[in-house]
Every structure is written in C-alpha cells, then in structure tokens.
Amino acid sequence: MTADDDFPADVEDLVQFEIRNQVAWITINNPDKGNALSSAMRDRMAGLLNGLNGRFEARAVVITATGSKLFCPGADISADQEATPRPDGAPEPIVGESRRMMLEGQLKLMPAILDCELPVIAAVNGTAAGVGAHLALCCDLVVMADHAKFIEVFARRGLVPDGLGAWILPRLVGLQKARELMLFAEDISAAEALQLGLCNRVVPAAELSAAATEWAERLASGPTRSFMLTKWLVNRSLDVDRRTLEDNEAWAVELNSRTQDAQEGVASFRERRDPIWRGF
Q1: Mean model confidence pLDDT for the chain
Q2: What is the CB neighbour count within 10 angstroms for residue 278?
Q3: Nearest to 19, CA basis, from 1, 46, 43
Q4: Sequence-ordered list of residues with C-beta below 8 angstroms from that of 79, at least 6 positions apart, any chain
Q5: Which run of H or of E encompasses 140?
C-alpha cells in the first residue's frame, strides 16, 4: 500500500512500518548512526505518510524510534549523496543545488506529516535535535519520555534552521521564545517542553509506547474524516486571513456533514447511546 518496492530492503529495515489495530507505526531504526536520517530514509517516511492518505487500513499514525537515547539527531551527513552530472569545469557546488536538495528532501517530509489526512503522534524516546526535533514538532500530538529532550542545534554548528523549523516553532511558542531557543541552541528538557507547549504529555520512558498506543488507538477508533478536516483547519488558521478561514470553515462543516460518522454522531446523541465511528 505504500510503495515499499521502491526502496531497498535495508532502507525498509532502517524505517520500519507496520499497522496494528488501525494504527500505522513508523519507526526510525538506524542505531549505527544514532537514528540520523539518510535521504533514502527521509524519502521512505514521506512516502509512507503520503501512502496512507485516501486509504482505510490505518486511521492514526505514530512516529517513533528504537532505543532509549536518541529519537533523531537530524540528517545523516555521512551518507553518500548521488552526484549530479555536470560539464567540465563546473564549480562544486553550483548555485541552486542546495536549494533544490532542500525542496526535494526535508521539505517534502515535514509537509507529508502536516498534510497527512490522519492524526500523527510523535513518541519521542530520546534526544530530538535539529531536523529530528522539527520532525516531532510537526506532528499533531507529541508524547515524550521523561529523559528525552529537544535541541535547536543549528546555531551550535553555525547553520540556519531548516526542516520547517522557522515555520513551526514560532507557532508553538511565539516569536520571542522561538528566537531564544534557536539562537542559544540550549537543551530543552521534557519538563520544559511540556511547559512551553512543545509536547502534550511526558511519561516515564517505560510507559512511552503504552501511552502513545493508548492515544493512537483512541484516535483510530474516532471520526476520522472529522479529524482530517479539523487538522486541515487548524494548520491553515495562522496562515490565512479571517475571511478566508471563515470560508474554509464553512466548507469543512459542509463536507463533514456528508460523512456517515457525522450522521452517526447526531443519531447517537438523539438516541442517547455511544457513537460507533467507522472512519468515513
């Protein structure tokens, strides 16, 4: 269902995928590189997320990683990059190449999370730094192990934040705090992340999987189309003017009213019983 045949077997092991109880689990499993993301791993994750849209095998998603130390420290800069053929005497690199690599790489993964029709939960098992932090922060809900942390690591390396960090972080913590976190690049503990609104819940490490499972299965048994349209509205709310959002909201309500789950919600209310959500 998710074009696994497009990726070599080793990449399928580095980014594992399974569906349990209508929850799609995407697990980063690259312990030799501290769960850093190669370009192939990144592309597989984006493909998996995009492949869930318009299908019914899963109704929620969890993104997590193996081990207990690292969720994802960012991109695997040691991974070999395929060289683009160029004429003799051309400089290395050529202006525009880095921009294209960004647009065709990380800037496909983050939108795949944000635009996924299903609610996506990040189960952060360890340090999430740089692009790894943004990978988690773009998810709809974030559950952290109590020892985990976020690091806006870019300034430590003299780099500019990427992976949509400059878009997502101010929306979560405000402009002033976003500047502080990015400019000083200090560790953000799970407790501080919870206080700042970077995560929704902090649990003991041994309870992380159970906590993510409980939330994901709860979402997977809910009104999936309602969740899809709610997510769409919320993601657009800070990017459009009020009049546009009014129009978006009206269309979202119109579309949702045509779903079987919306009709079931009204019927169950009238009949004073629990609703049975089917996801369409």
Answers
A1: 91
A2: 15
A3: 1
A4: 33, 38, 39, 40
A5: none
209 Cβ neighbours under 8 A, 6+ residues apart: 64, 123
Number of H helices, E strands in the chain: 12, 10
The tokens for 69 are 């130390």
Structure tokens at 184: 């000083």
CA distance 138 to 122: 9
CA 171 to chain centre: 15
Q: How far is residue 161's CA from residue 169's CA, in Å, rounded to a whole number?
A: 10
pLDDT, position 82: 61
Condensed to tens digits (0 to 9), the pLDDT of residues 76-99 reads: 877 655 666 777 777 777 777 677
Question: How do residues 1-59 score in pLDDT, each as one tens digit?
Answer: 544 445 566 899 999 999 999 999 999 999 999 999 999 999 999 999 999 999 899 99
Task: Give CA torsion, residues 14, 33, 154, 162, to 10 deg.
Answer: -20
4-78+96-220 in CATH: which number?
3.90.226.10
Percent over 70 (pLDDT), the chain: 92
Q: How many CA atoms, within 13 angstroms, populate the side-chain half-sphere of residue 244?
A: 8
63: tokens are: 């993104």
Nearest alpha-carbon partner for 125 in 150, 90, 89: 150
**Strand duo 201-203 + 187-189: pairing:** unpaired
Q: Among 4, 116, 124, which residue's Cα sits nearest to residue 60?
A: 116
Task: Give CA–CA dist 239/138, Å, rounded.
Answer: 15
Q: Is 279 exposed, middle or buried (0-12, 13-18, 19+ CB in 10 A)?
A: buried
**Is the distance from CB of 75 to CB of 28 less than 8 angstroms?**
no
Q: Would you say 20 and 58 are in contact if contact means Cβ atoms under 8 Å apart?
A: no
Burial class (CB in 10 A: 0-12, 13-18, 19+), 62: buried
